[in-house]
Amino acid sequence: MPTRSFASFRPAPRRIEDPPSPDALFTAFLSSLSVDEGAACAVLYSAAVRHFLSWLGLRGIALETLDDHVAHRFEKHRCRCPGYSAQEPAYKADLAARVRRFIRFLEDQGYIVVADGIDDLGGHLAAYSHQIDALQLVEALSGAYRSEAEHFAIWLRVSRRPWTEVDEGVIEQYAGHYCRCPAFRKRGKLASSGMKRRRRFIRHFVAFLRDRGAIAPVEAKLEVHPDVAAYLGWLKQHRGATDATIRRYRPEVDRLIAMLGAPVLWDAAGLRSAFARRSKETPGSVSLLVTIMRSFLRFLIGQGQCRPALLHAIPSVQRYRLSTLPRYVDPATIERIISACPTDRPVQIRDKAIILLLARLGLRASDIRDMRLDDIDWRSGHLIVKGKSRRSERLPLPQDVGDAILTYLSTARPKAIDRHLFLRAHAPFRSLSSSAEIAGIVARTLERSGIEGLPTGSHIFRHSLATNMLRAGAGLESVGTILRHSSPETTAIYAKVDLPMLMKIAQPWPGDLSC
Fold first, then answer.
1. Which of 462, 463, 484, 496 is catalytic?
2. Which of 96, 244, 429, 459 has minimal Cβ neighbours within 10 Å of its Cβ?
3. Is the whole model's pTM more than 0.85, yes or no?
4. Is 364 noted as a catalytic residue in this protein?
5. Which of 158, 57, 148 is nearest to 106 (CA)?
6. 459 is catalytic
């Protein structure tokens, strides 16, 4: 059910002539509300508006200067107006709410000129409504999206804020504002859950307006150290680093600057102390920490801000790449996992197609998350995969995988404008947000199959595919091609998992023989 509103959102030309008499103005106001003059609602509006007009006349306030500040003064005034008596605070709040609707009517009629800083707001709201319809949300949720967008537009006008000033700070003020806006909705201050809901809906609407070019994007006003900014730009332009790599490097570099200060003051003792502190905080990322610190030091040395000898202050970390065996699952267990995938509901059909892609092609979770409808060539039976190397690879599409995807597309995939292959099963129908969602699908499938003791991540299928291919007689080059490894050394870790072959070439242990 659409929310009732008193806002037209159409730009009104400025009225040159003087406003009509209070009676004529009030009659036009009731007509805009679609309220009969004899109704009880009309009586309440009549008392509020006539009291307000009388109060304006006593204080000499012109109609064209009305805003929310004037309405607030009227709400808080100690009534001594002729013909009117003092009222209770709760009633005065309702009185002011009706007055604010009257002020909005004057704005829509052009008696009060307001510069919103946006063109065709009504058209943008209509386009936003169509986009919400395309998401196929339930009626209550879609109505909430539309209602909150209109409420935000009303609040901006009431606050006399132009759309050009909308940023995260303005959204936060809206989320926590004490509502007295001229629209049908809950009054007062919302609970924390309601504020969170407001914030989420308005961020969605503001992002929609920015995508349409209706309002200019607001750049994040974050204080970035000049050396850090130069380093991140160097990674992007000269080293070809991806956005994900830059996001991972930046927090560590920021912490390093915060701990040691300006790079010109760095020394070996300070670097070692910072490294020891960070390695204790994140023991599982020590190798990456060494890589980041050395990369930043090389950049600073190249810029002449650090002594070259400081590069040797970062200790080396021993990494034994071949010290453990990759965990894998035998082919019989893989088939058991696949057979445990039901296909009674749309979400189960989607999950089975994802499990088959993991098991048959050894794809990464990120590969499946980013896969789009155009990546499948049905005529040639190929699948285009964009991996971590940022280049496209063509892989053969097995028959059972193709059948599962086709079943999902024809019977289970929601009709949505999103071009990603796999979408969420419930509205709003968007793509999977992260690889963790695919890991959750794997965990639910393993639990359903009753198999215990296996990792719940999706990478277990990748390790299993490589191991089973080697045991079936495939070469390392073939395995590397299927898994899309850029270096043969990465594929070489699977050479040690063929234990029967290793047993044939293993030499007896010398025992107690002397060296």
1. 462
2. 244
3. no
4. yes
5. 158
6. yes
Catalytic residue among 92, 204, 459, 471: 459
Residue of 100, 352, 364, 413 marked active site: 364
Q: Which CATH class is domain 331-499?
A: mainly alpha
State the catalytic residue, choosing from 4, 388, 391, 426: 388
Segments in 238-308 forming alpha helices (H): 243-260, 268-281, 286-302
What whole-number distance in Å separates Cα of residue 473 and Cα of residue 198? 59
CA separation for the pair 306, 308 (Å, rounded): 6
Alpha helical stretches, state H, 34-88: 40-59, 68-76
DSSP state letter for 315? P
Residue entry with tokens 């949505």 = 416
Reply yes or no on whether 69 is catalytic: no
Structure tokens at 479: 């395995």
Assigned fold of 226-313 = DNA polymerase; domain 1 (1.10.150)
Residues written for the chain: 515
Q: pLDDT (tens digit, 9 = 90+) per residue, 431-449?
A: 888 888 888 888 888 888 7
Cβ atoms of 371 and 421 within 8 Å: the answer is yes
List 45, 145, 249, 494, catalytic entry: 494
Three-state SS at 304: coil
On the CB side of 350, CA atoms within 13 Å amount to 20
Is 360 noted as a catalytic residue in this protein? no
